[in-house]
Amino acid sequence: MKPFQPLKDYQVLITRGKRQADGLKASVEKNGGTPLLVPLLEFTLPDRREEVQQRLDELDSYDWIILTSQNGVEFLFALLGKRPVRLPKIAVIGSKTEEALKRHGYVADFIPSQFVAEGFASEFISLLQPGSRVLLAKGNLARAVIADEINKTGASCDEVIVYHTVLPDESERKLVQLIVSRKIDIITFTSSSTVEHFLQIIDRNKLGTYIESIIIACIGPIAAKTASKHGLTVDVCPDVYTTEAMVEELIRFIVKKNNRGGTLK
């Protein structure tokens, strides 16, 4: 008996960075789909590292450090190098960020129940005292929600940019070819940055009419809000903000539509 493959005959665009695409790619393949890897994000070390290093040299003066993504973890330790360092208490957003931290031999002291900035901030601030010092390590495109909420409490939150997010040069040509040849059935967005980079390419190449019938899946409400704000219809957005949950929700969407005998969009 053949396994149930609900994504059979669907070509699924994966827009996240190369180093983070493996799990989503495997999940799509496991369910019979064809993954199309076009990374719309590439991550680099910050240009002006002197300022970053100065902040990292002061780590022992902070009560907490916040890491909001796997990239934040990896680039923080890349910047720290092999020098011995004693980190303050560590707060992370998301199970994947927690796993990345463990790979470097550290355990998170705080993980929120909600994997978005607003939920994190509302839970985390209860741990702070007036005068507590917090360092937020993040990417250049991350929102200021967490720092703003912490600073309102009488604690202080400094931000340090440990990586930059850019659009890979070669990805635009590849994406345009796939869209024009109508090779994409489903688009997955794993961040607001992937949405915005995708739409930059669509607008530059005047491809708006080509994507009207494509299924849109977003990993969580922030990416979904960005997509909706720019006029995209979001079909799938899971309650748990992981790629596994996104694929599960995508499958439910497709099965439900097929059972009704209608078109998917």
From TrEMBL:
Stretches assigned to the Tetrapyrrole biosynthesis uroporphyrinogen III synthase domain: 24-248
Documented EC number(s): 4.2.1.75
CDD domains referenced in this protein's UniProt entry, alphabetically: HemD (cd06578)
Iron keyword on record: no
Pathway where this protein functions: Porphyrin-containing compound metabolism; protoporphyrin-IX biosynthesis; coproporphyrinogen-III from 5-aminolevulinate: step 3/4
Keyword Lyase: yes
UniProt record, GO biological process: protoporphyrinogen IX biosynthetic process; uroporphyrinogen III biosynthetic process
Domain of life per record: Bacteria
Enzyme class: lyase
Keywords: Lyase, Porphyrin biosynthesis
Catalytic activity: hydroxymethylbilane = uroporphyrinogen III + H2O
Annotated function: Catalyzes cyclization of the linear tetrapyrrole, hydroxymethylbilane, to the macrocyclic uroporphyrinogen III.
Family to which the UniProt record says this protein belongs: Belongs to the uroporphyrinogen-III synthase family.
Name of this chain's protein: Uroporphyrinogen-III synthase
